[in-house]
């Protein structure tokens, strides 16, 4: 007889043997999705007998995870901040590191004042949507080159009832946009092209290459972004950019060369410099 707990134990061991991260959590999520049961069922009724249909449903999902397909793609969702977002193979899976970008953006926006926010390379929309969920007076523009990604972002915006405050646009970074914006955010592709295949299979095989590939040195997107940010920022406006490991100083220099004034570099919980913030340089003599 196969029970909830025996199935969970078997799946956990198989995921561990394959070297999958978070095998305990993944096993539970695969059972919940594949067998249509709740977390409470697993806790309160662990010896419930599973039907053949339930076992088959779970095993189909387990096979995908053993092939290292991201759990977010299999489940179709991912938690971020205090919210939950739809995720598909057309967008990057939201990562905890990116919450630091949201934190930086929120620091620059007063809770009770109107503001205009721009997110360049919006992906699933998690950054812009999270910021707007915390700042009810703000409106936003979310830009992405991928129409498929924008479809996911719109769906997430609709689920959070935020689309009335957002303009979703297909475009090449900030090209063709009209400013000014009080806050500009971006989590652009920053992985060096040659390094992508060395990443975890979940990333290298399944994440969209467009959202990963930052060119030969990983900095191509920042070179394109800096002059556009300079042109689109409002007086007193701020920008915050997520960066890859070891890139903060290079991104700082690119911002400086484009007529921006970098303000600080913020490290994530692992101690990696992860976010560069700044403003327009000439504002140092005037407005705060």
The number of domains is: 2
Report the span from N to C terminus: 68 Å
Structural class assignment = alpha/beta
Strand content: 15-25%
Q: Count every helix, treating DSSP H or I runs of 4 or more residues as helices.
A: 11
Approximate shape: elongated
Oligomer: single chain
> Which stretches are low in confidence, meaning pLDDT under 50 for 5 or more residues running?
283-288
Spell the H/E element sequence: HHHHHEEHEHEHEEHHEHEE
Arrangement of strands in the largest sheet: 5-4-3-6-7-9-8
CATH superfamily of the largest domain, please?
Vaccinia Virus protein VP39
**CATH architecture classification name of the largest domain:** 3-Layer(aba) Sandwich
**Gyration radius from CA atoms, angstroms:** 21 Å
Main sheet overview: 7 strands, mixed
- The residue fraction in helices comes out at 25-40%
What is the CATH first-level class name of the largest domain? Alpha Beta
Determine the CATH topology of the largest domain: Rossmann fold
Number of strands: 9
Mean pLDDT: 94
Structural notes for this entry:
By secondary structure, the chain is of the alpha/beta class. It has 2 domains: 4-67; 88-285, Rossmann fold, CATH 3.40.50. The protein contains 11 helices and 9 strands. Strands 5-4-3-6-7-9-8 form a 7-stranded mixed beta sheet, sandwiched between helices. A two-stranded antiparallel sheet has the order 1-2. Strand 8 and strand 9 form a beta hairpin. Helix 1 crosses helix 2 (23-35), helix 1 runs parallel beside helix 4 and helix 6 (99-107) runs parallel beside helix 7 (126-134). The longest helix is centred in the N-terminal third of the chain and has 15 residues, at 52-66. The radius of gyration is 21 Å and the shape is elongated. Mean pLDDT is 94; it is low at 283-288.
């Amino acid at each position: 007889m196969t029970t909830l707990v025996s199935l969970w134990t078997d799946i956990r061991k198989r995921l561990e043997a394959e070297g999958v991260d978070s095998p305990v959590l993944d096993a539970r999520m695969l059972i919940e999705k594949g067998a249509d049961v709740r977390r409470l069922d697993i806790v309160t009724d662990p010896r419930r007998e599973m039907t053949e249909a339930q076992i088959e449903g779970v095993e189909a999902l387990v096979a995908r995870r053993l092939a290292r397909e991201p759990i977010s793609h299999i489940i179709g969702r991912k938690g971020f901040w205090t919210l939950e977002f739809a995720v598909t193979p057309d967008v990057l899976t939201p990562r905890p590191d990116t919450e630091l970008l949201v934190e930086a953006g929120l620091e620059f926006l007063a809770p009770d004042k109107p503001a205009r926010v721009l997110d360049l390379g919006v992906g699933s929309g998690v950054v812009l949507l999270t910021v707007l969920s915390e700042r009810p007076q703000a409106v936003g523009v979310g830009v992405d080159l991928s129409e498929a990604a924008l479809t996911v972002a719109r769906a997430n915006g609709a689920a959070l009832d935020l689309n009335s405050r957002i303009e979703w646009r297909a475009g090449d970074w900030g090209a063709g946009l009209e400013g000014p914006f009080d806050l500009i955010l971006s989590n652009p592709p920053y992985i060096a092209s040659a390094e992508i295949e060395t990443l975890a299979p979940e990333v290298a095989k399944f994440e969209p290459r467009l959202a990963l590939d930052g060119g030969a040195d990983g900095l191509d997107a920042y070179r394109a972004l800096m002059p556009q940010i300079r042109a689109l920022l409002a007086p007193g406006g701020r920008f915050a950019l997520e960066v890859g490991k070891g890139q903060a100083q290079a991104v700082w220099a690119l911002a400086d060369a484009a007529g921006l004034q970098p303000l600080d570099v913020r490290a994530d919980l692992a101690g990696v410099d992860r976010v560069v913030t700044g403003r327009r340089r000439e504002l140092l003599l005037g407005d705060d």
